[in-house]
Amino acid sequence: MNLIFLGPPGSGKGTQSLMLEKLLNVPKLSTGELLRKAVDEGTEIGLKIKSIIENGDFVSDEIVINMLSEKLNNGDCSNGFILDGFPRTIEQAKALDILLADIDKKIDAVLELKVDEQVLIDRISGRFNCADCGAAYNEKSNSPKVAGICDQCGG
Ligand SMILES: [Zn+2]
């Protein structure tokens, strides 16, 4: 099954798509994560992305589409995939259509999460991450077991 997940930050998109990833046994492709991973791995495209970000510019749709294309052609996606955070614009949606037609795939469903604006603000304003491992916490709904100590890495 090929899915697209839409929703603002704090809508629970990450959590829900992670659950679906396990349930359907298909990979979740978050374009933000793909970009960060490419930068961390220092691949050719990663270095290019790094310099774009360091210059304060946005990574072009072309680069994102190329990265997605590589992933979607990968064997991992033969059972399907979940797109998280992409497409964000009409232009990106059109580019995705072309990419999918090229590799003979179709989107089965688009899920949009809608959450009350005040609830979103409350959720996002309480968010923080471990500086060592990046584990996500929320001071209202998901704080570490010991205050100031990361559950995951002890940092
Ligand atoms: Zn940690």
Structure summary:
The protein is built from 6 helices and 6 strands, in the order βαβαααβαβαββ. The strands form 2 sheets. A 4-stranded parallel beta sheet has the order 2-3-1-4, sandwiched between helices.
Q: Helix and strand succession?
A: EHEHHHEHEHEE
User: Can you list the ligands bound to this structure?
Assistant: zinc ion
According to CATH, the homologous superfamily of the largest domain is P-loop containing nucleotide triphosphate hydrolases
Largest beta-sheet characterization: 4 strands, parallel
Q: What number is the mean pLDDT?
A: 89
**Distance separating the two termini:** 38 Å
Overall radius of gyration: 17 Å
Annotate the secondary structure layout.
Elements (H helix, E strand, L loop, with lengths): L1 E5 L6 H12 L3 E3 H11 L2 H11 L6 H12 L8 E4 L5 H13 L6 E4 L4 H9 L1 E3 L6 E3 L17
Parallel strand pairs: 1-3, 1-4, 2-3
Antiparallel strand pairs: 5-6
This protein binds zinc ion.
The site of zinc ion has 8 residues, from loops.
What does it look like?
One of its GO terms (biological process) is AMP salvage. It comes from Candidatus Arcanibacter lacustris. Keywords: ATP-binding, Cytoplasm, Kinase, Metal-binding, Nucleotide biosynthesis, Nucleotide-binding, Transferase, Zinc. Pfam families: ADK (PF00406). Its main location: cytoplasm. There is one protein chain. The protein is of the alpha/beta class and 155 residues long. The chain folds into 2 domains: 114 residues, Rossmann fold (3-Layer(aba) Sandwich); 30 residues, no CATH class. Helix content is 44%, strand content 14%. The protein contains 6 helices and 6 strands. It has a 4-stranded parallel β-sheet, with helices on both faces. The chain has a two-stranded antiparallel sheet with strand order 5-6. A hairpin with a 6-residue loop joins strand 5 and strand 6. Helix 2 packs across helix 3 and helix 4 runs parallel beside helix 5. The mean pLDDT is 89. Zinc ion (ZN) binds next to loops.
